[in-house]
Each structure stands twice: as structure tokens, then as C-alpha cells.
Design goal:
425 residues; alpha+beta; nine-stranded antiparallel β-sheet; five-stranded parallel β-sheet
Amino acid sequence: MSNIAVIGKGGREHALSKFLLDSNKYTEVFCIPGNDGMRLSDIHCLDWDSQNYLELVNILKSNSILKVIIGPEDLLANGLSDYLESFKISVIGPSKKLSLLESSKSYSKNFMFETGIPCASSKSFSNSTKAISYLESKDVAKTGIVIKSSQLASGKGVVVTHDFFEARKTILDFLDSNDCSINTDEILIEDYLEGVESSVFVLFSGKTYKILGAARDYKRLNDDNVGPNTGGMGALFKEDLLSESQWNEVSSILDKICVKFEKENLDYYGFLFLGLMHTNDGTKVLEFNCRMGDPETQIVIPNCSFDLVEDFEKTFRKETLSNDQVRHNNSFGIHVVLSSIGYPDIYNKGMSLGERINTNVSDIDSKIYYAGVKKNEKGYYVNSSGRILGLSYLGNDVGTCIEKVYGDINKLNTNNFHFRRDIGK
């Protein structure tokens, strides 16, 4: 057996690390840098300055780690995968070039157009005056509009609205405002698509793939899908979330991606996340992400059979995958995120941090995945970022999953935290 590391520090990385640890396929499992909450799960967390790639190589080699799974999109966009590969470290995480599928919404949209992948019509703008002029040609109140930051925005760079003035303000915020935390050189204005959303997760090895499953993300901050977009406040896994015909449409999309890779001799090693909208006109792609989603990972990965570890190993060895689906252990799963008051802090007003977290969870049936948690100088665990932790429960009855998760949340001290009460309902 060998050592392995997951790079990142959030709930997604906690779930990946715990899955690898529970598989008993590795000598030691590390999460770099991880967070203090993960240490409660016997995961080895190692400090690392995420800007210093050479320091990371030294940390990996000093701990005999030659296999790495990269979690966060910004590290992929900044070429960490390519850098580690140059030191003979095997990586699950696409190259900087192919990470443009997420880090540049403009590149991603052109990729879809070129391959014939169904998606919403879209126009790109770098000038707010021209963007607003285009917006004025749309009947926003009637048809709706979607405005996206072309650059990475931690899942918060998308605004969907039927309000012209909100759309106009978003354009000015994204392109011109110093008070908005989302700053981009380019935005996309897309037609609004009506339908039901889902997320499909795929592991690619070169030009072949393995489908890991589908889930539904709850992006809006508050119940009934109101409030600002967030990185994700919860997720639902259902074995039958997609119909047979919808899975056929997903297979067609994946085949088109593989044809593109074959035609241009591109090899993709890592996760690909398809954000989908199932409309009356068929399934359309909203976006590509080059990593697992957060919080969907927290119910998709723990529900996969440990056969998935062999697919990871094949990907490390750059071998062919079987172009089918991984086996799942349960039919349903619910994940609910607890966040800090003030999240998402889009306008830099600050969040309520340093609030104590109850980590005495021996009577809780759900799995807890820690995200923004640290141990303070008094030895207490406190929240350190927007999303603090999440609870997952997997089973064969959705009602039981919902009951278990919310029952366990009530056992925690949640007075100073925010969570949605309608996940899966």
C-alpha cells in the first residue's frame, strides 16, 4: 500500500479523505492543509501555504506521498497539477489548459458551441456600458436573464433574475465595483433556461470516464430557493434523480466531449462536473467544473462502492476506464450545510466568526464533514469561514434521511449559525 493526499481544506476534501481512509487501501491518508475539524476523523492534516508549490512538493516527498487528488478549482486553474506532474507525482486533477473549462466561462461556452453540446445562448462582455445596452434589448421581466462572472468566483459568480434593475446592478458590480468581492474582466449574459437542475459527476482518465453519480445542489441561501447564490447550502442524492432518457442525453454529452478530446489529442485526468438543466427541449449544460462539487461530494463520494478506489488508481496510472457508472451503496442521501451569519459575504461586510462549535457528537448518526473550523487558543473549535460544516445521512428512504439529518442538527448548538430547513423536501 502507499500514501495518498487530498489537497484542500473544505468539506469536499474532508469527504474525499474520509472515503480513502475508510477504504483501507492506503497506508496513510493526508489532507493538505485540511482543517482542525478533520483531525477528529483521524485524518493527517499538514500545514501548507497554498501559494508555495515547491513547499508542497517538499511536504509530499518528506511524507512519501506520490499520489495526490486536488480539490479546489483555483489550484487547478493556477497549474498545480502540471507542476506536481513535473516532479513525478501522480495527480487526479486536470491540467491548467483543460481547467479553462471552469476558470473561463467564455472558453467553456466556446467549447460547448464547437462540440455541439446543447446549452443556453450567450454573449460575452468586458465593458459594462455595452453589456447594459445588450441587457436593454432583452425582456428580462418576461424571460429572465443569467449573468455570470467568466472568472472563478467560489460558486457565487452567477445571478439569475427576472428583475432588470438587479441585472443591471450585477453587471456594474461584477465589472466596475471595488466593493463587490466578485471582480472579473469579463461577464457572460445568457438566456434563462426553465427546467429542473442536476449535477452529474464524472471521473476522466485520458479520453475515457466513469460516472460517479448525480445530485441536486441547493445554491440559494434561504428556504424556497430565495436569497443570494452561495457555494451551496445542501444537496440531495437519489438513485433515480435522472430518468433513463436523461441519462442517455448525459451519455451523448460525454461522447461529444470524448470526440473533442480525441480530435485535438487532449487527455483529461480528473473530475468533471456537469451542471445540467433538464428542460422541455432536452438536457442542456449550464456549466462545467473541473473538480467535484461542494457540497455534493459529501453525499456522492461516501455513497460510492470502494471499487471507485481502483478507478482512482487507474487514473493515477493513466489507464482506461470503463465508460459506465460506479455502484452505489444507498438509494438516497441528504446533506445540509451550516454557515456563518453574514455568509455569503459578497459585499465585504464581514461575517460572524469565532463562534464556538459543538464537536461532542457521539450521539449523532449523520456523518459530519468539517469545512471552516479551527481550534482556538482556549482549545475550543470555532467557525473560521463562511461554510462551517455539513451533515450527511445516506439510506434507502428519503424521509428517514431527512429526519436523521435535521434531528442531528438539533443536537448541535446552531443558534449562531444558519442552515436551510427544506433540503430534500
